[in-house]
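Let's practice the habit of predicting before peeking. Look at the sequence and jot down your guess about where helices and strands might fall. Then scroll down.
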Amino acid sequence: MRYSALIPASVIVATAPFAAALLQPEPGAEIGHWSLQPVDAPPIPEVDRADWPDGPVDRFILARLEAASLAPSPEADRAALIRRLHFDLTGLPPRFEEVQSFVADPDPDAYRKLVERLLASPAFGERWARHWLDVARYSDTKGYVFEEARDYPYAYAYRDWVIGAFNSDLPYDQFLLYQIAADRAVEEEGAHRKHLAAMAFLTVGRRFLNRQPDIIADRIDVTFRGMQALTVACARCHDHTYDPIPTADYYSLYGVFDSSEEPGELPLLGEAPDSEAFRAFEAELAAKQKAIDDYLAGRSAELVEAAAIARYLQCAQDGLGLDDEALKKLASERKLLQRVTLRWRDRLRATAAGDPDPVFSPWHAFATIPDEGDEGFRGRAAEVWRKLEAGGAIHPAVAAGFAGASLESMGDVASVYGAVLAAASAGDDAALLAAIEPATIDAGQIYRLLETPGQQHVRRLRRELESVKTEHPGAPPRGMVMVDREQAREPHIFQRGDPGRRGERVPRQFLKLLKGDSREPFERGSGRLELARELTSRENPLTARVWVNRVWGHLMGAHLVDTPSDFGLRSEPPSHPLLLDHLAAGLMEDGWSTKALVRDIVLSRTYRQVARASEAARTRDPENRLFSHANIRRADFESFRDAMLSVAEQLDPTTGGRPVEISGDAYSKRRTVYGKVERQNLPPVFRTFDFASPDVHVPKRPETTVPQQALFMLNGRFAQDMAAALLAAPRCRDEEGADRVRALYRQVFARDPSSAEIADALAFLDGGGEAEGGSWEYGYGRYDSERAHLAFTPLPHFERSRWQGGASLPDPQLGWVSIHKTGGHPGGSGKAAIWRWRAPADGRYQIRGTIELPAAESDGVVGAVFKNAGERLGAWHVEPQGNAATHLDEIPLKRGDSLEFVVACGQRENHDSFLWNPGVRDVETRATWVASEGFAGQKPPSEASRWEQLAQALLASNEFAFID
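Done guessing? Here is the structure:
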């Protein structure tokens, strides 16, 4: 069935009755269901307003609008368009200069050129990869796995592969195929080994305490909801309730994934690097592995030592009449391995039955001697031995062991057996090797038999091994692949989903819903490559439609199909079915190019509309399903955080590599896509800002407005740091008054403030209510000794008990400037170290303190005290290894007035570390405030300066948080 046959070209409108007809889940409804029809390019509709469309996308949109008697909205202004494009294509805000240049560009092709520049940006892949990682339930950890190592050491390789795939515009069909069967594509078709990283799509999910049926169910779910928008996993326990997907088809797919396994050694994604770092990694990895192997080999070897054999035999003999649980308890009390003790007990039981055993018949004979003390046992044992020798059926090695032995208890008997069997363990005597078999356990099998402390020790060693793979700088990336088992597993239906209730056998094959009666069982290995071919076939009606719908939703703020991971019979029909098919057909015709699809959408006038609804649209289409205007959208967590880093000039542009921590005090300043995603304990900031749950496939993120978001912006360390860094940005740090307000607006909003906004900001800055009097602030500023002028900016970072410019010294921007509890270091280029103190009340104050300069290599520093950053009260030059008393009396201050304590470099900034612990005293009340006593790290919000509060308010504003 074709859409062109369903609807005449002259009336290409999906009316409500038409949509309802497509939705009815009646028997056989799948035959006519919209999502299962072949994808054909429908005819481009004719429209009345022919001057508005700028391509086929606009014509399909306009046809629906005209049918609803609605009109499209005007085009957004250029400033809004460049911001929208930057966020949609790169996830980063434009700079003020970029906005101004674009707004003023007379080139009629300026918009198209901007689109091409952003599509070519490496940030495009970083932005769009995160969209797909939501689909792929990406995480850097496994979730709850008891004491197993929790990290996925190479999950980051998958994240980096996805970023690279979007940046290189890897055709979408190949993009999907590699994530299902890159191992087969590399082996059979010569694909590059780097694509092995793609297979983490299957393996990066939850581990469900390693329950294989649950792991496979998760892989089926992410594959078919992510790539086909089909809820196949619903058929795990029974035939799908709504869609024609029988349980048999679920287990056909189950067999494909059950016929695949994860190899013990993951493959490198390229040639091993020839570097010192890699060799160091290999050496440390080998050392960690050797520690594990040596421990397991030692535990295996100790079981065949004479003393160990004797102890196990004695315990097994004492427990001959006990059940398994009682014997396990006895073994634990004697510090023996439970299951090894059971093996010895079973051996004694077996050799006691039937014909006399040449190895163990002496043991059983001696065991019949009553416990009558040493003298009684010795005499009875000699008599037993004479009878055994007379019988002549004793193994020669056992006979030799007992020859001349003094036996006073079963302990002595056990010692003889221990010595005989231990010596035989290295030989080839079949009877003796069979006798010692309960203790002969390969090092590769011993782990499961160990006691709890032993297993815990091995798990700790394995975690250390995994941490080397995760953290060592020389560890090369590897692919989290699956490979085909040597023998494919033909699946059975699990009745009611219970693996213990196997039903009829089914072949490994594709869904009948999509393939029909022409499907044939998969024959090549596990069938994953054949499955991938079916998923990416041009004949598959879902693949292109599903991806087009996801891309449209990310760019337009609403999907054409409102259930992007469910195109089944109960799903809502598309708002624009013909547009969906037009774009899907175009995607395939363009070689499955995602960038071409994005380009078609963002170049349309539909995308460029202003985000403001007309009165008619609000009445007739309140949800904007007809796209009569752009949707107002809030930046998601990644874009919001990255934008704050960007405008504060703090964004680390490093790409790729291992995940970094982006929450807590020691947060990384890299893009949020590189943040570590902890599946079991997702950091609160992720949850607060609606990050996609890494436990499951997420088709659409929730969007909430909750108090925690405001609290994060008010009280969070990150928000406060960004506000302080914003003030320290080159555009802002040396400006004052209205110029600084203007600089802040340009930095945050990429625009100039209005005169009213400047007036409001200045009124706020001058409006009193400063930080509580008596508090200390720590900053830096340009000190002009000739003009006796000072500019103060708070230092943005607290590290190792000092305030400074960044996480390390010297800071790239601020150099060596820093302040600690009793001193500090000025920076070069006029960046003086400055304390600021504010008067709590009107009064007269005095200052006491001494500046000391310990280093002889310094060329001296200058100290000064200012009032309100504009009146110099005193200045002192301090020579190397010298000091200067900084005493000032009778300083009149009003409540909220400030005193600035300044230390600046001489000609050089080398060796200028100084000591100064200034104090302020109220002459009348004798209250004293000393800098060292008031020294603190991160300031609570109530103590932030007015400028910091203003910067923080701008970052917390709707204008910053929303794209339009």
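How did you do? The chain is about 45% helix and 10% strand.
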